[in-house]
TrEMBL record, chains A, B:
L-aspartate binds at residues 166, 210, 355, 359. It comes from Methanofollis fontis. This is Aspartate--tRNA(Asp/Asn) ligase. Belongs to the class-II aminoacyl-tRNA synthetase family. Type 2 subfamily. It comes from the Archaea. Residues 188-191 are annotated as: Aspartate. Binds 3 Mg(2+) cations per subunit. The strongest magnesium site (Mg1) is bound to the beta- and gamma-phosphates of ATP and four water molecules complete its coordination sphere. It is found in: Cytoplasm. InterPro entries: Aa-tRNA-synt_II, aa-tRNA-synth_II, aa-tRNA-synth_II/BPL/LPL, Asp-tRNA_synthase_2, Asp/Asn-tRNA-synth_IIb, NA-bd_OB-fold, NA-bd_OB_tRNA. Keywords: Aminoacyl-tRNA synthetase, ATP-binding, Cytoplasm, Ligase, Magnesium, Metal-binding, Nucleotide-binding, Protein biosynthesis.
Length: 429, 429
């Protein structure tokens, strides 16, 4: 019976493992192999004078990154990884790796990102790269845990849709039988409809698709979004929920992924809540004082401004009270000052992680705001109809999974947070 | 502070609730309203002589399915739902519902499925319909729990892909910038690549897309798939995993969704494991003996055959040892009889719920099997490459979420297990 390499200790006496040949060192009378599985690395030591002939033959033939199955006795030894080594009685090559490898798994030769992504199956064998996806898996599971325990239902909304969330731009068209359809940019309209449906607290973790033409280190054309919507709640309620979730996710990673964090060599600190709230008007003043470009109230915040504000604010803060004009039609204007709305962005010094708002729940105001954006309300009838039959007040947000992972782990390029990224030029593998 | 209706008891003394007006009965001196939120229903009783004038006015004006907020004193009363009623001191209409409603929420008037789906936000307000999605949410969360606890990583694989999993049919094409791309039919090839990546145990719960032309009660064009892949495992190992998961999911629903099960009025029993294993050759004999159509070894099993075999086998069983010729190229043939392969289907008497297999992990055999299906291996290079650099033996399966929910709850049409179904004719809402 094969056991995980991390479970192999001198106390085992005998053990059988299976994994990938990480390194081979032939010192003449002795051969050392490092064998890797997803739990760790073990040294396999072959003393040529003592080892069975079949073992010697297999070890001689084996190439790096081949899959092998090894059984033998475990011995405590100080100098080996994990303080133990395996002396094989049997050594079987399960699956041969061709040489040379298209990518160096031990990272002696650095590779550029495109080469890495072309051979992603080899790239993620590197413990430092696999660590990112262990963290991402933990973050996803912990999101389900946290929201389920707070009474949220998870929902699955359609990815094939007939209408754009925010107008006709940035959509990928699909040939859907005789009809025109698109890949959904966001579950926004659908999660709002579930508020009319009386579900009250919903979340979804799923793919979103944006046909953005720019190719940057912070954008993907296919991404994963964590979406939340809550009835009888306002923007302040869902900001608290969001900061609680972010703190919980960091804490879950801190607790369950210490090995991955060590492999990544990052400084990791669970953020403290509450995160600061910075009104948009003040954010603009900070930016104006710090950057050379002209910036004025009413402007959107570009990369340079975000960076400047981030330098002053530190990690994780909210920008609140945005001008109604520069936020989507579904953001609720303040009753006493409709030029400002109950929208917020959650920022990391490096970028925006999440956008949210209390939503407009009044049908006529919503129609007005859709028209004010230059969109035709007729195209939104499927979405507007629920607002005429008992739509409760509600609020929510969407958070980009990859940006969360990227900022959490200090990754330089958002593509490093995706197994098989999709961008302007890449749909393979 | 609003509390959930299910938490309102006579011991509360005073309570504030918010929800939808489920029914209004005016008996002259008395008006009874039933108010519904996602946790339950409460009777609100207004004695006209005693109630404040503002309350009387609001109650007179309110329409069914409007959203209201009510505060008052709670009294024990035998005849009311939950043994208590609320006597309002304040009664505010939060959001008005137009009359007439496009759909009757109390189900006095039955509606056909198309009408229900057109007004899905009203349809799912029915406790019996909402119950389906409470169960589905529980099943999804419990899948994450179960697989995470067994050491599985969840992964997110791309939905926009350049190649078809099983050849060029049944694909939705996307206009992806200058490139040709498709919506993915299945994470099959990607989860197998993650085996080459050394992740060993992965799962994904996500959307799949099939451009099937037929419009039946068992098919969707966008569905949710639970996908699992395990390294160093064979078909028998992953059949045990699958039956354990199914039993666990039924048990989770049994434990956490008793209200929903009661609303649905279904008989619910947690299936016993192990599920029977029925070799394909025997399945064909059962079908041949029971149905009028001619059927012979080598034929695929149609609806009529599946039903006939199901009558003999009962709920949940595996059909194993399929002819290699009628299973996909990635199914592993038996070493001693390559005409039969290590593929299985998990059946419910009504339909196939899951397909799986030990996979071919040998590069050259895989190329041979792809060619044998009349496909060109050159189109699969991104997938084949990992098989040349240390691919471990592996096995896995995919299970349709909607079919699982449909059979679990005795639903007649698979569309009832989806909030916003996508079929041959429907992309709205």
């Amino acid at each position: 019976m094969r056991i995980p390499i991390s479970d192999v200790t001198p106390e085992c006496g005998r053990a059988e493992i299976a994994g990938w040949v990480h390194e081979v060192r032939d010192l003449g009378g002795l051969t050392f192999l490092l064998i890797r599985d997803r739990t760790g690395i073990i040294q396999v030591t072959i003393v040529k004078k003592k080892a069975p002939a079949e073992v010697l033959e297999a070890v001689k033939a084996v190439s790096r990154e081949s899959v092998v199955r090894v059984a033998g006795t475990v011995k405590a030894i100080d100098k080996a990884p994990g303080g133990r080594e395996l002396n094989p009685e049997t050594f079987a090559i399960v699956s041969v790796a061709e040489s040379p490898l298209p990518l160096d798994v031990v990272e002696k030769v650095p590779a550029d990102l495109d080469t890495r992504l072309d051979a992603r199956f080899l790239d993620v064998r590197k413990p430092r790269v696999a660590a990112v996806f262990k963290v991402r898996s933990t973050v996803t599971s912990a999101t389900y845990d946290f929201l389920s325990q707070r009474g949220f239902f998870n929902i699955a909304t359609p990815k094939v849709v007939a209408a754009a969330t925010e107008g006709g731009t940035e959509l990928f068209p699909i040939a859907y039988f005789e009809k025109e359809a698109f890949l959904n940019q966001s579950p926004q309209l659908y999660k709002q409809m579930m508020m009319a449906a009386g579900f009250e607290k919903v979340f979804e973790v799923g793919p979103i698709f944006r046909a953005e033409e720019h190719n940057t280190v912070r954008h993907l054309n296919e991404a994963t979004s964590i979406d939340v919507e809550v009835s009888f709640a306002d923007h302040n309620d869902v900001m608290v929920l969001l900061e609680d979730l972010v703190r919980h996710l960091y804490a879950a990673v801190d607790e369950r992924c210490s090995d991955a964090i060590a492999d990544l060599g990052v400084e990791f600190e669970v953020p403290k809540t509450p995160f600061p709230r910075l009104p948009y008007a003040e954010a603009i003043e900070i930016a104006a004082a710090r950057i050379d470009e002209p910036i004025a109230y009413g402007d959107d915040l570009g990369t340079v401004s975000e960076k400047a504000i981030g330098e002053e604010m530190g990690e994780h803060y909210f920008i609140t009270d945005w001008p109604t004009e520069i936020k989507p039609y579904y953001a609720m204007p303040y009753e006493d000052d409709p030029a400002i709305c109950k929208a917020f962005d959650m920022m990391h010094p490096r970028m925006e992680l999440s956008s949210g708002a209390q939503r407009v729940h009044q049908h006529d105001l919503l129609v007005e705001q859709i028209a004010a954006k230059g969109l035709n309300p007729d195209g939104f009838e499927f979405y507007l109809k629920p607002f005429r039959y008992g739509m409760p007040p509600h609020a929510g947000w969407g958070m980009g999974m990859e940006r969360l992972i990227m900022t959490m782990l200090g990754l330089q390029n958002i593509r490093e947070a995706v197994l098989f990224p999709r961008d302007r030029h890449r749909v393979v593998p």
